[in-house]
Amino acid sequence: MPKVTISSVIDAPVEKVWARIRDFNGLPSWHPRMVESHIEDGKDASTIGCVRNFQLASGARLREKLLDFSDDNFLVSYSILETPQPLTNHKATLQLRRVTDGDRTYAEWTASFDAAPEDADKLAEGMGANVFQGGFNALKSHFAGQS
After folding, report:
1. Domain of life of the organism in this record (predicted)?
2. What is the pTM of this model?
3. 120-127 contacts: CB < 8 A, separation 24 or more?
4. How far apart are the C-alpha atoms of 133 and 112, rounded to whole Å?
5. Burial status of residue 111 (CB atoms within 10 A of its CB: 0-12, 13-18, 19 or more)
6. Which of 20, 1, 2 is nearest to 140 (CA)?
7. pLDDT tens across 43-59, in order?
């Protein structure tokens, strides 16, 4: 089971970063690879079990189920239900933590999944570099120069 862990430090208070990313349906508002998203069945985006259906800039569609959500812990966990990628058993968590030195945010995005051995490394690399680090880079750019 491949595991991916990407972390970053964002120059903004944890509350501000969380306010930007906490909406499970809000990926297109902050992540450059996501272009459209909706929550299926009219559920609220913070309801455990809700499903977001979103489109990537590449045109691919994914469906992900919310597994855990905590404003207190600045955490969201989800699993991929449908993806064009050859993977199964996916679970990911995005969590923010307060960095008191400079009032910054430590962000960590982790995932594990099953895939054929010949696909696993490439999938993990793409998930880490393109999705997770790409999201962190967008957040860092957004908050650059803000106090």
Report:
1. Bacteria
2. 0.92
3. 120/2, 121/2, 123/2, 123/85, 123/86, 123/87, 124/2, 124/3, 124/4, 127/4
4. 16
5. buried
6. 20
7. 999 999 999 999 999 99
Residue 46 vs residues 1, 70, 116: alpha-carbon distances, Å = 28, 9, 33
**Which of 19, 13, 57, 28 is CA-nearest to residue 146?**
13
Which residue type sits at 123? L
Instruction: Tell the residue number behind the tokens 């999201």, with chain if given.
Output: 135
Cβ within 8 Å of residue 23, ≥6 positions away: 29, 45
Partners of 66 in the β-ladder = 78
Q: What is the pLDDT of residues 60-93, one digit of tens each?
A: 999 999 999 999 999 999 999 999 999 999 999 9
